[in-house]
Amino acid sequence: MHEYTSTARVWGLTCPGFPEEVSRARRWTRDILRGSPLADDAELIVSELSANAILHTASGGLGSFHLALAVSPKVVALSVTDEGGTGSAPKVERPSEDAVHGRGLGMVSVIAHRVVVHGSHSGYTVTAELFTDTRPGGHPC
After folding, report:
1. Under a CB-based contact definition with an 8 Å cutoff, are residues 125 and 79 in contact?
2. Which CDD domains does its entry note (predicted)?
3. 29 and 78 in contact (C-beta within 8 Å)?
4. pLDDT tens digit string along 10-19?
5. Measuring CA to CA, how many Å separate 82 from each of 15, 38, 57, 106, 117?
6. Can you give the pTM of this predicted structure?
7. How many other β-carbons are positioned within 10 Å of the β-carbon of residue 27?
């Protein structure tokens, strides 16, 4: 194989900031990962990250959010980029038992093997990675 050739495949989708677009993001993810044992987890992660972009950033309403999905033999990486507009970066929170919000990114961090947040107040990208080989002694990358 040539040193600059990759077996990874990458897809992208930009969605308007309307709540019904979350189901479109789920369906898109499910269609790309059809037959993969990681499809259900990926669909749940994309649903949560897309909903967070719409509910908690300038992506909601008249804005938009962008999805990227990269698939290689070792990892499925799902990224959602929002339009920012908040004073703080997305983070895993420990809400009180009666809190209505604040559990989603924590759930994503439990399902994914790694979660990374990049960006600034003008827009954040949350990337969740699912490794295909998680057997003891297996090397994810």
Report:
1. yes
2. HATPase_RsbW-like (cd16936)
3. yes
4. 999 999 999 9
5. 10, 24, 7, 18, 11
6. 0.84
7. 12
